[in-house]
Amino acid sequence: MYRTFFLLLIAILVIGGMTYYTLRFQWPRDRGPKMVIADGDLQRGRLMVLEFGCSGCHIVASVRQARGRVGPNLENIREQIYLAGILPNQPDNMVQWLMNPREISPQTAMPDLHVSEQDARDIGAFLYMGSRYRMSQAADNATH
After folding, report:
1. What's the DSSP call for residue 18?
2. Other CB atoms within 10 Å distance of the CB of residue 100
């Protein structure tokens, strides 16, 4: 009886240790694709979301005013497989979509807002950052 108990205890400890190791060191923390627009300005992107009126149609992380229900929720856009249902979700495609939505999908409800390439890069960088923007702002404020 003690032998069975001892073997069961060892098995539980081994399985527990393997599970801990996998979750702690091997499991990806951010399972979404690594979406970064290197030359995008996050703070400016947040301002551009407001300036271009994205908040009228979309829910956007870290923008309290952005509670629109016309377009898709953009809070976790970095985890989506496709943009607009047709473009692979990649930074260059995000920029192109923001600049020319009607060229890519003529039937889209998204208007062509004449977004410049730099504005699109800033907006894309901000959208890909999502709720992490709030955390990075809090960390920045804590260090100053």
Report:
1. H
2. 14
Compute the distance between CA of residue 43 and CA of residue 137 in angstroms, rounded to an integer: 10
Place of tokens 């060892």: 10
Exposed e or buried b per residue across 105-137, where buried means at least 16 C-beta atoms within 10 angstroms of its C-beta: beebebeeeebeeebbbbbbbbbbbbeebeeee
The dihedrals phi and psi of 67, each to the nearest 5 degrees, come to: -130, 25
CA atoms within 13 A of residue 63's CA, in its CB half-sphere:
30
| Cβ neighbours for 127, distance < 8 A, ≥ 6 positions apart | 45, 49, 60, 74, 77, 78, 94
What averages of pLDDT result for each successive group of 10 residues across the chain (144 residues)? 87 88 63 73 93 92 83 89 91 96 95 97 92 52 46
Q: Model-level pTM? A: 0.70
Q: Are 122 and 131 in contact (CB under 8 A)?
A: no
For residue 36, give the amino acid letter: V
